[in-house]
Amino acid sequence: MPMPGGGGAAGAARRPPSGEAAAARDEEQQEEEGEEDLRDGGVPFFVNRGGLPVDEPTWERMWRHVGRIHPEGERVAQRIRGAADLPKVAYSNEDKLPRVIGFLSCILPSQLILSNSSKIPIPSVPAFQPSTPIPERLEAVQRYIRELQYNHTGTQFFEIKKSRPLTGLMDLAKEMTKEALPIKCLEAVILGIYLTNNMTTLDRFPISFKTHFSGNYFRHIVLGVNFGGRYGALGISRREELMYKAPVFRTLSELIFDFEEAYRRCWHTLKKVKLGHCVSHDPHSVEQIEWKHSILDLDKLTREDFRKELERHARDMRLKIGKGTGPPSPTKDRKKDVSSPQRGQASPHRRNSRGDRRPSGEKKPTDSKAMPDLNGYQIRV
Asked: Which terms in the GO cellular component ontology are assigned (predicted)?
């Protein structure tokens, strides 16, 4: 949920008006909770909160989005919505699938447009033999994520609340594999965790990026991985170079610098990196994912300090893994009175609230319990 318009770095000479500062704080809080409609480089995108099948208000909002962004505007929506010969196939949302086909055909890239005789491709969830090497498994997981396709519809189909326990997010990931709909980057991270839970020698942790381009801020997230001391990433993006990274990087800083260079090739300036701790492999854990253990503001760090902070975070993760995290995390079986929050209920207590976070380059104490003139043109990543 990037902030619309440009914004000076913290501590800049010009202080934003109080109203603008309050709006920035609200947007940051919304991002943290993952519970509000987001903005992508100043362009709003929405979250489907009604579940599947898509309800009528959400459906109409999606079509209005088509009218705003498609070169033919409302005409293309009217033409497809009035078509009577769209294909029907057996699917969990069969009653609305022909409409979904029509919608995707006008919103997705041209190579994905489906003809009337087309079958909707349903990717197969990867299955592995015990002898399959971890790098090959990661390639298969990334291939599956890629086959789901990036969601260009302007509406995120699955509502992801970052404060939910891991068990609830894994239930949601299972639903993603059943529905096989296009996904955005946060959904890809949850799906990546779900599909690598049985790879117990693989460490997984979230990596979030905030970049600036042409007066707007953009945010992106991937799932960092560490296998055998080599770092990589899983995820999805509009840009090929901002998603999958094979586990070949010797240090965490090498991985992050590679992402930074990829952003630079897209004319984006990396502003902030947020790193989480390793995610449990227990799909029934009621612990929350720690999304932002380290928050690194590049405007406040020298290059060398940035590298040192990245390596300090890597050491913290190794120490946490080496020492363990205390007693086994509670599960559905061992703690019946704890369950995933349902829509409308209050989220569980967040371990890393805004008050707990420290400025750039600092870390929260470990919990004892646990170029050319491109103005006016947007390159969305």
From this structure: cytoplasm
